[in-house]
Amino acid sequence: MAPYCVLAARLRHALNGGIRRYHVASVLCQRAKVAMSHFEPNEYINYEKLEKNINIVRKRLDRPLTLSEKIVYGHLDDPAKQEIERGKTYLRLRPDRVAMQDATAQMAMLQFISSGLPKVAVPSTIHCDHLIEAQSGGEKDLRRAKDINQEVYNFLSTAGAKYGVGFWKPGSGIIHQIILENYSYPGVMLIGTDSHTPNGGGLGGICIGVGGADAVDVMAGIPWELKCPKVIGVKLTGKLSGWSSPKDVILKVAGILTVKGGTGAIIEYHGPGVDSISCTGMATICNMGAEIGATTSVFPYNTRMKKYLGKTGRADIAALADEFQQYLVPDAGCQYDQVIEINLSELKPHINGPFTPDLAHPVSDVGAVAEKEGWPVDIRVGLIGSCTNSSYEDMGRSAAVAKQALAHGLKCKSKFTITPGSEQIRATIERDGYAQILRDVGGLILANACGPCIGQWDRKDIKKGEKNTIVTSYNRNFTGRNDANPETHAFVTSPEIVTALSIAGTLKFNPETDFLTGADGKKFKLEAPDADELPRLDFDPGQDTYQYPPKDGSGQHVDVSPTSQRLQLLEPFDKWDGKDLEDMLILIKVKGKCTTDHISAAGPWLKFRGHLDNISNNLLIGAINIENGKANSVRNALTQEFGPVPDTARYYKKMGVKWAVIGDENYGEGSSREHAALEPRHLGGRVIITKSFARIHETNLKKQGLLPLTFADPADYNKIHPVDKLSIVGLADFAPGKPLKCIIKHPNGSQETIMLNHTFNESQIEWFQAGSALNRMKELQQKSS
Fold first, then answer.
1. Catalytic residue selected from 476, 481, 566, 686
2. Orientation of helix 150-163 relative to helix 138-148, angle to 10°
3. Angle of helix 175-182 versus helix 279-287 axis, rounded to 10
4. Is 498 exposed, middle or buried (0-12, 13-18, 19+ CB in 10 A)?
5. Which of the residues 75, 130, 459, 758 is marked catalytic?
6. What is the predicted pLDDT for the residue at 246?
7. CATH label, 581-783, candidates 3.20.19.10, 1.20.58.220, 3.20.20.70, 3.40.50.720
8. What's the alpha-carbon Rg for the chain, to the nearest Å?
9. Domain covering 350-525 in this structure, CATH number
């Protein structure tokens, strides 16, 4: 029977519409149809299909299922026949929807245009949040961004209208906050072209970050492939209190698992401690799961989610979820591949960094560690907000700290910025006074956008190369990520800790124990902040920033100028010629960490995300060359001169020479940006050989027709030198699970052979043979027609 609130609505409709036209019994017998969102009233949540698929799989596997398995297997294309083995088999899935941020949507929509399809097959949205640079404040920065990026915004708007994609205009907010407020729900499977898409797990959904080519598959109505994830259980006991926050949970987990410990797994939180965390707090934890390499993270449906759904105008979804709750929580007795237990009552405030998000310190210790390591202890800037921590509760807790400082006549010693997560959050914190408190303490309210978190920060208070410290409530702190300065020591922590440290101006301050001196000379201690998790009144939606796609967009014109420096239509990559890859040069042998920021930098390069040739000028400019210990300086094997990486790659391409990249551990960690795969392919690369890959990047490389391979023996990394030539042989017999042979030719004429592993399945091998996944899609379309 339909849930009460839905039944009540149907009864009211029956009575208001005339009892003669409706019989009450017939209304009661209808199963509730609840829309996935307010913006798509004719697209319904299909819990019945989820239920049916789960029951088929549970019967086949004959064991209790984790929540992750329920939602993932509940979206199988063929649950009766799909081979299922955690960590081994590839699943064919049918996600419910797609979300794209503007920096990655450009390439995703260009690929979708290349597919020749008339309209997306699933509900999809574009969110303008990445192209707004933080300079002088929200309104001015937004106006400037609209002017500078007009061509790109127009392309995304018209492409969305033509192909049936909803468009969130610049100023709407950060993609993940918009998804949480409007699109995520318990049991949904959503893929997004941003690595922090797992934020939606805070509402009980399986939300996974992918590259644009994966999004194109789903928008084209093709089953999406994902290696069957393992499941890491994090059991939470106790209760958060005092200065400890949801952010500290994931900072602690990152310290335990490291940046690659979650690779190939879903992190599933469970246990009695879950109920002490707000819905937006759960989203924070899931969001930063990307920093440990996890496929995604998820929490079980509970009353905190129900409360959030109600406050965001989706009580009907909560009521339907109540009816299907047994499918939105783990089965009793389910088995995890690994279990971590955290007692929230004992959890201390944490701060992680610098230069990597898994270097965890209790806040009480970081000052002493910084002095010992020679890190600057004076804090130049504190920054709160981002997709990780910009909820109403986050802003309220920060304002509670700021209010105490103001009561004692203090303001921030450090510069202080605030990024609201969405227009709804901005409008609501303005109405409720939080924004003014944060301004009064010295804060600058930035636009509802990603801003400094992704390097969109026109920072003026330091010179490049100047050693300094910043503290943020963001998720990543890779070298140079926020401000392009490799000497900026960035630490990530909770918004309230950022606020407290910004008031004190130093890493040596511990708000749990240390005192501040007020304007009157008297010492005082900050009390642990307390704030409402949701506004007492309804959220203020602020300005209407959503563009609905028309019912028929076939007449819409999408313009891409052939002379544009921002946008470029894509040309198909060349097909594999059927031969082994012989005598490849090594473009670069990378030393140490190589994230997608190193491979395809963001910041000023974001403006070229829709122009493959132009953005390829940043290829691997941040990676450290093992030959000379420098960034963006590699030997040209044909001229023996050292030069920039992109220039060298272009020279090899011009000369018709194929090349390879040699990488270290967890190559490609970080962002989902597929430009880090498109660029090497565009400039003539064919193979990337590493000790290990981050999940999204490995898939992106496969999608673009490259060969991501790993050393069967990681020690073989040391056998390859930048001056060597490489041949990958045996490609005619390329098959799933079958290693490939690599012949290393040294300059002295000697050679040796090593073995390389891969994770290709049969369809992914077809991508390689066709030249890319998009080429293969077109081949299949031609065959079917």
1. 476
2. 70
3. 140
4. buried
5. 130
6. 98
7. 3.20.19.10
8. 26
9. 3.30.499.10
Backbone torsions φ then ψ of 267, nearest 5 degrees: -90, 120
- Does the pLDDT value for residue 11 go beyond 60? no
Say which amino acid occupies 282. M
* pLDDT band for position 31 (cuts 50, 70, 90): low
- Is 476 among the catalytic positions? yes
pLDDT band (50, 70, 90) for residue 785: confident
pLDDT in tens, 606-626: 899 999 999 999 999 999 999
Q: Which of 102, 129, 248, 483 is catalytic?
A: 129
Rounded-to-integer distance, Cα 739 and Cα 759, Å: 9
Q: Is 194 a catalytic residue?
A: yes
Which candidate in 124, 172, 414, 671 is catalytic?
Answer: 671
673: annotated active-site residue: yes
DSSP string, 374-394: T---BEEEEEEBTTTB-SHHH
The helix-helix angle for 423-431 and 392-407 (nearest 10°) equals 40
Whether 130 is catalytic: yes
**What is the per-residue pLDDT across 451-465, written as a single tens digit (0 to 9) for each?**
999 999 999 999 999
| % of the chain at pLDDT higher than 90 | 93
The domains of the chain are located at 67-229+302-332, 350-525, 581-783
Catalytic, out of 96, 102, 141, 194? 194
| CATH, domain 67-229+302-332, list 3.30.499.10, 3.20.130.10, 3.90.1150.10, 3.40.50.11060 | 3.30.499.10
Q: Which of 10, 635, 650, 673 is catalytic?
A: 673
